Amino acid sequence: MTTHALGEIVSLLFMAIALGMDAFSVSLGMGMQHIRLKRIAFIGIIIGLFHVMMPFFGIVLGQAISGKIGDLTSLVGGLLLVGIGTQMLLSAFNHESRQVIQTTGIGLFIFALGVSIDSFSVGLSLGLSGAKTALVLLLFGAASMVLTWMGMILGRKVHRLLGVYSEILGGSILCAFGLFIIFG
After folding, report:
1. pLDDT tens-place string over residues 136-179
2. How far apart are CA 81 and CA 6, in angstroms?
3. DSSP per residue over 60-121, as a string?
4. How far apart are CA 108 and CA 85, in angstroms?
5. Sequence ranges of the domains in the chain
6. Alpha carbon distance 91, 106 (integer Å)
7. Which of 24, 62, 64, 120 could cross-link 151 (Cys pair, CB 3.0–4.6 Å)?
8. Residue 69 to residue 121: CA distance in whole angstroms
9. Relative orientation angle of helices 105-129 and 133-162, to the nearest 10 degrees
10. What are the residues whose beta carbons fall under 8 Å from the beta carbon of 125, sequence distance 6 or more?
11. pLDDT tens across 33-74, in order?
12. How far apart are CA 125 and CA 12, in angstroms?
């Protein structure tokens, strides 16, 4: 393996971890809900798949779409996270309201889309730079899946320690991360 190829792998690995950190942060907040380990494993796989599909679509469309789309995807992703976090905060104070965003069905896909939409933008730029598509997709999917699992399991443990306040903390984390995506 040449030094150039190794350098490309290392830089793509760091990029994959950076993109997966939003999945970790959001999963930390979502893990504070009472979620079974089997569901956590499934959620990690779905988020990993979204972190494969989104940059793939970005790479494929990288030549055809202008750079303006990147800003829009970050805004949409940030707004989704703020919405999920706000809902968690409101449900923490109103015990009668049921959860709007679930980690099942369409709620899971909204959740996965929210944490993986930024990888679409990265895919656009990688498509323009001619990165190795298979390597990018493998690293992005694996890193986000493992980081999602880590975040949800850690969030689950924090939930046991904090009890009722964990939902407030989880919602605050989601809102803060969404705002960071929008304004950061």
Report:
1. 899 999 999 999 999 999 988 887 676 656 667 767 776 887 78
2. 35
3. HHTTTS-THHHHHHHHHHHHHHHHHHHHHHHHHH-TTSPPSS-SSHHHHHHHHHHHHHHHHH
4. 14
5. 3-183
6. 19
7. 24
8. 7
9. 140
10. 58, 62, 70
11. 778 899 999 999 999 999 999 988 887 876 565 555 556 666
12. 13
Tokens representing residue 165 in the block: 């306040």
Of 180, 171, 17, which is closest to residue 100 (Cα–Cα)? 171
- What the block records as the tokens of 67 is 């750079």
Smallest CA-to-CA distance from 121 within 165, 179, 74 is with: 74
| Structure tokens, 133 | 């598509």
Structure-block tokens of residue 115: 């944490």
**What predicted TM-score, i.e. pTM, was given to this entire model?**
0.71
* Token pair belonging to 31: 């893990």
